[in-house]
Design goal:
By secondary structure, the protein is an alpha/beta fold. It folds into 2 domains: 2-374, Alkaline Phosphatase, subunit A (3-Layer(aba) Sandwich), CATH 3.40.720; 385-494, Arylsulfatase, C-terminal domain. Helix content is 28%, strand content 18%. The chain has helices spanning 17-20, 41-49, 63-72, 92-97, 104-109, 168-178, 186-201, 224-227, 255-286, 319-322, 348-356, 370-374, 468-484, 490-494; strands spanning 2-8, 51-57, 60-61, 115-119, 138-141, 208-213, 247-248, 292-298, 303-304, 309-311, 323-324, 326-329, 337-344, 384-388, 393-396, 400-404, 414-416, 427-432, 435-439, 449-452. The N and C termini lie far apart (45 Å). The relative contact order is 0.17.
Length: 498
């Protein structure tokens, strides 16, 4: 069977039609959300054809750690933060296509499959993470988004004043040279090239196509007519660049700016959905739904007013960030179904390999979701665990959720692997015995947090003091789950759970 995996960066679950079901966002999970309906007819098409997983959680965050979970089937966050694939990683494309740089004829003779990456996500190949493309049979990058170091021409171009001294200056410079039509937006280019690749390559047996799309991650600069669907002012609100702050929004924005940024995010989702429709039209035209597993997911969400915040990071992996969309369409499973089982990004690794007919290596943390696709009664996992390196650790059973903060001092903490922390500002000591000591790295300034998601889905009430019995139960689950995945034992000391 073919597999097409679509990873959209920073896609909130409540902005996907398969989850909001046409309701205004503030009637879904968070009363702090805007009162808009976000139309996503093409995500709806996929949900009607496929299975919607209601309890999918990220794992390692943010962007590249989440991708390493997908590429290796193993959680990254207990061992290290943002970084490249390691030499010992049995990354997904190589498990599908075998050793790189071989002839396709040799690959096919050995039982390997053709794999292809199409992406505008420049983190995949920039310094600090840049080797995620190397295992594929082929790859195609769309240049120019965010801080992609592409054009340097000293020319005049449109540049919002708040972005003049920020990395997004590069984005606007790049846009000046490449954007003339709707087809030139970066996600449109990515999905357009995916359609062209399918037209030319769909006759391969059991191919793997991986689409890594930067939208709806910042910069939020979709066509203005889409912004006006949610805010009639369009781009007429003063004092804004192309990205919202990662902060408590009332400390840095007025209400007009806050609402306009949320409108831009919603408009980016609508634009992404429009171009997903082009891809799904291509699958219709080529008759690929009958022999292809299609997976749509995200690396994480973002605060969009939840807990009074905007952006990622800052605090625990609350629902708005950690609870993500996952929709899968399988030719042998009837559409329009939902699943309640706990799932995570690490599960996509064994699911893809099993679907495509390749063996799953030993030692992965993920669980194939093909049984759960086929049956609502198939077991997956008792707990989902998530976190960012050196910060709090999140665990949920789908009903309760615990965000365990580290003890004072956040020590001991080690970064495992031979490479440095080139992207995240983490000071590391000398390499010794496979790891480096982390120096002076503080966690989020927030208490351990316990919520009952059945009555408080957006986790606004902290019950850690009121329910010491449930707190102790969930802390035991953290200890057991970290032990089960072989996490470094000092993590329990750092978290005050030893």
């Amino acid at each position: 069977m073919n597999v097409i995996m679509i990873v959209c960066d920073t896609l909130r679950r409540d902005h996907c039609g398969g989850y909001h079901l046409g309701r205004p966002l503030n009637e879904c999970w968070s009363a702090e959300a805007p009162p808009w309906r976000v139309p996503t007819p093409n995500m709806d098409r996929l949900a009607e054809r496929g299975v919607v997983f209601d309890n999918c959680w990220c794992g390692s965050t943010p962007c590249m750690p989440a991708r390493r979970d997908i590429y290796t089937g193993r959680y990254e966050f207990p061992w290290r933060g943002w970084g490249p694939l390691a030499e010992e990683d049995l990354d997904l494309p190589r498990q599908i296509s075998g050793p790189p740089n071989q002839s396709i004829a040799w690959m096919q003779e050995q039982g390997h499959k053709v794999s292809y990456l199409i992406s505008d996500h420049f983190h995949l190949w920039e310094q600090g993470a840049g080797n995620y493309h190397m295992g594929y049979t082929g790859f195609d990058f769309v240049r120019g988004i965010e801080a992609d170091a592409w054009r340097t021409d000293p020319v005049a171009f449109y540049l919002p004043e708040p972005d003049r001294m920020r990395k997004l200056e590069r984005h606007w410079r790049n846009v000046h040279f490449c954007r003339k039509r709707e087809e030139d937006y970066f996600s449109a280019q990515t999905l357009g090239r995916a359609c062209a690749w399918l037209e030319a390559n769909h006759t391969y047996k059991d191919f793997y196509l991986h689409l890594d799309i930067f939208d709806p991650h910042e910069p939020w600069d979709p066509p203005e007519e889409l912004v006006k669907m949610f805010d009639p002012k369009g781009y007429g609100v003063a004092g804004l660049g192309a990205a919202g702050p990662y902060a408590k929004w009332r400390e840095v924005l007025n209400e007009e700016q806050f609402n306009n940024l949320r409108a831009r995010y919603a408009a980016k989702v609508v634009f992404l959905d429009r171009w997903l429709g082009r891809l799904f039209d291509t699958l219709d035209r080529l008759g690929l739904w009958g022999n292809t597993l299609v997976i749509l997911t995200s690396d994480h969400g973002t605060f969009n007013g939840d807990h009074g915040r905007m952006g990622k990071l800052q605090t625990h992996e609350h629902d708005a960030v950690g609870h993500i969309p996952l929709i899968m369409a399988h030719p042998d499973v009837s559409g329009g179904q939902r699943r309640a089982q706990l799932t995570q990004l690490v599960d996509l690794y064994p699911t893809t390999l099993e679907a495509i007919g390749r063996p799953v290596p030993a030692g992965v943390h993920g669980i194939s979701l093909l049984p759960a696709l086929a049956s609502a009664d198939a077991a997956t996992r008792r707990y989902a665990i998530a976190g960012q390196f050196g910060k709090s650790v999140t665990i949920t059973d789908g009903e309760w959720i615990l965000h365990q903060s580290p003890a004072a001092g956040n020590q001991p903490l080690f970064w495992y692997g031979y490479h440095l922390s080139r992207f995240m500002p983490i000071q590391l000591g000398q390499y010794c015995d496979g790891r480096r000591a982390v120096v002076g790295y503080e966690s989020w300034p927030c208490p351990t947090w316990l919520s009952d998601k059945r009555s408080d889905p957006n986790e606004l009430r902290n019950l850690a003091e009121a329910r010491p019995d449930k707190l102790a139960e969930m802390q035991r689950a953290v200890r057991q789950t970290l032990a089960a995945i072989g996490a470094p034992k000092e993590q329990l000391v750092r978290l005050g759970l030893a």
